[in-house]
């Protein structure tokens, strides 16, 4: 459904991704596990097309050169040159790292902004679904997003991505900085998004432990390179992986 072929990304002369080939099948929940600077965000940005936007901006201001080699395929089509907003329209949607939301707008306004590509009826239905998924957000409908807790902002960011209507949803470190209780809540919601809404998921995380039982397939990356792949439970048996990423 979503695949990369021999992706190489350079920031000036520094390597962000190194010959990365991976595949996500329809309905799967796929994990991308790696420590700081492993290349997780670079991969998510390349799959969502955000990197094209970053490249343009850097070029305009005469900043560093971003170079991308290799291909991104969605439903068999080469989308490597498709801009991120077009990819979103096609159903490839990214919820970025550290939950950027519009802090001065209310929860409801944030959701409306996220749904701007869709007809009003669908936006209203989407909002109701969001409030079912996250009852906390329903309580704070009129509150400015900037006044929500980190966990609540993360929930809002994920529901904003859902409002776009993803076929495949890319989540960049959704559990980052959350308390264990909040992490469990979020993992439950991620399971619902996968099982009930039938959305295909790619989730980048540094510490994947609470997610691992849910993952159909896992890619471990280091220095922009794949070092290990396999179903979650199998990786869990590898002692090196266990101590490096899962804290056991
Ligand atoms: N805009 C950029 N300009 C220059 N180098 C970058 C840029 N973005 C990322 N890099 C470099 O590319 C490599 C991969 O970074 P990336 O942000 O993709 O890692 P990550 O796995 O998401 O890390 P983290 O867990 O900290 O979010 C790092 O060495 C980083 O310094
Ligand atoms: Mg990152």
List the helices and strands and how they pair.
Blueprint: E1 2-11, E2 14-24, E3 29-33, H1 40-48, H2 50-60, E4 66-74, E5 77-78, H3 84-90, E6 92-95, H4 107-114, H5 120-133, H6 135-139, H7 150-163, E7 168-172, H8 180-195, E8 200-205, E9 217-222, E10 225-230, H9 232-236, H10 239-245
Parallel strand pairs: 3-8, 3-9, 6-7, 7-8
Antiparallel strand pairs: 1-2, 1-4, 4-5, 9-10
Helix pairs in contact: 4-7
The structure holds adenosine-5'-triphosphate (ATP) and magnesium ion.
Adenosine-5'-triphosphate (ATP) is lined by residues 11, 14, 16, 34, 36-42, 64, 97, 206.
Description:
There is one protein chain. The protein is of the alpha/beta class and 248 residues long. It has one domain: Rossmann fold, CATH 3.40.50.300. It has ten helices and ten strands. The chain has a six-stranded mixed sheet with strand order 6-7-8-3-9-10, sandwiched between helices. Helix 4 packs parallel to helix 7. The longest helix is centred in the C-terminal third of the chain and has 16 residues. It is globular, with a radius of gyration of 18 Å. The model has no long low-confidence stretch (mean pLDDT 91). Bound molecules: adenosine-5'-triphosphate and magnesium ion. The site of magnesium ion has 5 residues, from helix 1.
Task: Describe this protein with a few key phrases.
10 helices, binds adenosine-5'-triphosphate, 248 residues, four-stranded antiparallel sheet, Rossmann fold, binds magnesium ion, 26% strand, six-stranded mixed sheet, alpha/beta, globular
């Amino acid at each position: 459904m979503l695949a990369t072929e021999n992706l190489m990304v350079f920031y000036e002369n520094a390597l962000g991704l190194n010959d990365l080939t991976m595949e996500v099948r329809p309905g799967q929940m796929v994990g991308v596990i790696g420590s700081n600077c492993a290349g997780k965000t670079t991969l998510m940005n390349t799959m969502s097309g955000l990197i094209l936007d970053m490249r343009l901006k850097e070029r305009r201001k005469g900043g560093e050169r971003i170079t991308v080699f290799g291909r991104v395929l969605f439903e068999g089509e080469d989308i490597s040159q498709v801009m991120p907003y077009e990819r979103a329209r096609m159903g490839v949607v990214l919820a970025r790292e550290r939950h950027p939301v519009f802090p001065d707008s209310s929860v409801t306004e944030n959701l409306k902004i996220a749904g701007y590509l869709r007809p009003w009826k669908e936006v209203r239905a989407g909002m109701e679904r969001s409030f079912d998924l996250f009852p906390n957000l329903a309580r704070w409908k009129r509150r400015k997003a900037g006044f929500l807790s980190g966990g609540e902002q993360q929930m809002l960011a994920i529901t904003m991505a859902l409002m776009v209507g993803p076929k495949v949803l890319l989540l960049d470190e959704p559990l980052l900085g959350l308390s264990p209780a909040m992490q469990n809540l979020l993992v439950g919601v991620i399971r619902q998004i996968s099982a009930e809404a039938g959305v295909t998921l790619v989730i980048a995380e540094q510490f994947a432990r609470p997610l691992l039982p849910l993952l159909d397939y896992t890619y471990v990356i280091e220095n922009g390179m794949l070092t290990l792949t396999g179903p979650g439970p199998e990786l869990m048996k590898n002692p090196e992986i266990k101590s490096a990423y899962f804290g056991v």
